[in-house]
Design brief:
By secondary structure, the chain is mostly helical. It has helices at 5-60, 65-81, 84-102, 106-130.
Length: 148
């Protein structure tokens, strides 16, 4: 079977066109996937930051209904989008807050404060890992003031 130069050129052109189409489709798929991942990460970041800000506001003004609503809203959002590990550490931190509030002596409050700091550090580390913000050594968080 003898192929002419024109037939070979045509075959090469068809193969090149098909290859280009395949590469274009793969590029679109990967681009959409990356955009989706980035949007999800940005959404998570907004919810993590909102939760921590709401938590801070609640610590400053415990009996403010607006702060409580804001905190509950961000908490619920995190329960939907956060990683399992981050949720686990968030719940442990909230339990540590409740333990502090139940403390009756200075020694119990000191221990509860240290536990809160450890739990908050673990939560922030898990959140950062979920957001793909990786650092070799993240410092322990020290609480400046805990509930009043």
């Amino acid at each position: 079977m003898n192929l002419t130069v024109e037939q070979i050129s045509l075959a090469v052109a068809v193969i090149a066109t098909i290859s280009s189409a395949i590469v274009a489709v793969i590029s679109v798929i990967l681009s959409n996937r990356n955009n989706s991942i980035l949007l999800k990460r940005e959404l998570k970041q907004q919810h993590y930051i909102g939760y921590i800000q709401a938590l801070s506001e609640m610590t400053q003004q415990k009996n403010n209904n607006e702060n409580l609503k804001n905190f509950a809203s961000f908490r619920n959002k995190l329960l939907v989008v956060a990683s399992n590990k981050a949720i686990k550490h968030m719940l442990k931190y909230e339990e540590a807050i409740r333990q502090y509030e139940k403390s009756t002596s200075d020694q119990e409050r000191y221990i509860a404060t240290k536990n809160q700091a450890k739990c908050l550090t673990n939560f922030v580390k898990a959140a950062r890992k979920d957001l793909r913000i990786v650092e070799i050594s993240f410092p322990e968080i020290e609480l400046l003031s805990v509930g009043s």
